[in-house]
Design brief:
Largest sheet of chain A: 7 strands, mixed
Shape of chain A: globular
Order of helices and strands of chain A: EEEEEEEEEEE
Oligomer: heterodimer
Largest interface: A-B, 24 and 25 residues
Number of strands of chain A: 11
Shape of chain B: globular
Largest sheet of chain B: 6 strands, mixed
Structural class of chain A: mainly beta
Structural class of chain B: mainly beta
């Protein structure tokens, strides 16, 4: 069974940093694309970025609002996905979801974690 | 303002059918497959339809998807109270080089 468990959320002041983690299990982690998606309170879903699989050299892509501030990385030996968030702004307040692609070749989002809340406020 | 356009709300009575639209352009829906997600209140989203019209195992066949040109649709037949949720479409966008979501449609079962 695919399981994705996020951790690391919390409250931080504007300009601060936070690192989210996602523990993955139930599949061969290195074979799949992994994305981060966020949802501001009462709002819709917003894609944050993704990391490709090992076959595609783990390259990353980011949404414009977070490019240059957020970094996605993965530790395949620990079956973990990470999101390093720097220079946080109040508009980054959201629930952050760790997700996995549908299959190794169908790259849309197929599985979601339960989410972790990040609050950026002074 | 979302790149993919969905109606903010939809409604129907139990047993009825409802359709939710998702409109894009050539760089997203026109070039890539569409996925649909259901988000029940207070929970994480769940994959409902992938590759335009494919249902993951466990999703009832009351849910169906279609795509034509730069638009996609999610159809729900035999509405049930437990279908009351937010529904989102999603597709990759070449111009923006990112995954785009629709703004979401809140489905109310009257």
């Amino acid at each position: 069974e695919v399981q994705l468990v996020e951790s690391g959320g919390g409250s931080v002041q504007p300009g601060g940093s936070l690192r989210l983690s996602c523990a993955a299990s139930g599949f061969t982690f290195s074979d799949y694309y992994m994305d981060w998606v966020r949802q501001a309170p009462g709002k819709g879903l917003e894609w944050v970025g993704r990391t490709r699989n090992r076959a595609n050299s783990y390259t990353t892509e980011y949404a414009a609002p977070v490019k240059g501030r957020f970094t996605i990385s993965r530790g395949d030996s620990q079956n973990s996905l990470y999101l390093q968030m720097n220079s946080l702004k109040t508009e980054d307040t959201a629930v952050y979801y760790c997700t996995r692609s549908i299959t190794t070749t169908t790259r849309g989002i197929g599985y979601w974690g339960q989410g972790t809340l990040v609050t950026v406020s002074s | 303002q979302s790149v993919l356009t969905q109606p903010p709300s939809a409604s129907g009575t139990p047993g009825q059918s409802v359709t939710i639209s998702c409109s894009g352009v050539s760089s997203n829906i026109g070039s890539y497959t569409v996925n649909w997600y259901q988000q029940l209140p207070g929970t994480a989203p769940k994959l409902l339809i992938y590759s335009n019209d494919q249902r993951p195992s466990g999703v009832p066949d009351r849910f169906s998807g279609s795509k034509s040109g730069t638009s996609a649709s999610l159809a729900i037949s035999g509405l049930q109270s437990e279908d009351e949720a937010d529904y989102y479409c999603a597709a990759w966008d070449d111009s923006l080089n990112g995954r785009m979501f629709g703004g979401g449609t809140k489905l109310t079962v009257l």
